[in-house]
Design brief:
heterodimer; A: 71 residues; alpha+beta; three-stranded antiparallel beta sheet; two-stranded antiparallel sheet; 5 strands; 27% strand; B: 131 residues; 3 helices
């Protein structure tokens, strides 16, 4: 499990275990289930049948803009 | 672990280019005028976070961070080179490939030593993920 301010992600190799975990935290705290991870702390995640791809395209664009590399 | 990019509907395998700034000899007393070290540090910090999914940037980013204390125009130009390289390789990322006829097994390891440095309490940590 990884918690950053108000963003939380979790994983595991036992589906029953993390389903129970999700139900219990959702009962205790007000939160929204956004499903499978797509974006977390500037990291984009694409999950497909072939595997998992992670990149920071959006973050990279922001860095280039901040340091005026848009010329 | 491969540096790949997603082109709408298919994976592109990208040949990772030669190290970007290794041809430039960088020394502490670089040529040129001194530049604002705060701005230089902000650029390095932003690039350090970028290495999370870009191992091809790691060497260059760690090299330029040696000159944070008193950066000059020469060091600044090296950072601009990395940013230019980044601009041309925005689609790069890490691909954790699922092995054929097996369950997708993603394995991760991490280790941390918080506040180990006795002088400034800086921490040391590292992680690796592979499939």
């Amino acid at each position: 499990m990884c918690l950053y301010v108000d963003d939380l992600i979790f994983t595991g190799n036992d589906e029953g275990m993390f389903r129970t975990f999700k139900q219990s935290v959702m009962k205790k705290f007000e939160m929204t289930d956004l499903g499978k991870i797509k974006y977390f702390l500037g990291i984009e995640v694409t999950q497909s049948a072939g595997g998992i791809f992670i990149c920071q395209k959006k973050y990279a664009r922001e860095v280039l803009e901040r340091f005026r590399m848009d010329d | 672990m491969l540096v790949r990019s997603w082109k709408g509907s298919e994976w592109m395998i990208n040949p990772v280019q030669v190290p970007i700034i290794s041809g430039t000899k960088l020394a502490r007393d670089g040529e040129g005028e001194k530049i604002d070290s705060t701005y230089y540090k902000q650029m390095i910090g932003s690039l350090m976070y970028m290495t999370a999914t870009r191992p091809d940037l790691t060497y260059d980013v760690s090299l330029i961070s040696r000159f944070m204390e008193a950066p000059t125009e020469l060091h600044y130009q090296a950072v601009r080179k990395i940013l230019r390289y980044l601009k041309g390789t925005l689609d790069y990322g890490l691909f954790y490939k699922k092995r054929k006829s097996e369950r997708h097994e993603l394995v991760g390891f991490s280790d941390s030593d918080y506040a180990r440095d006795v002088d400034d309490c800086k921490s040391t940590s590292e992680y690796v993920f592979f499939s």
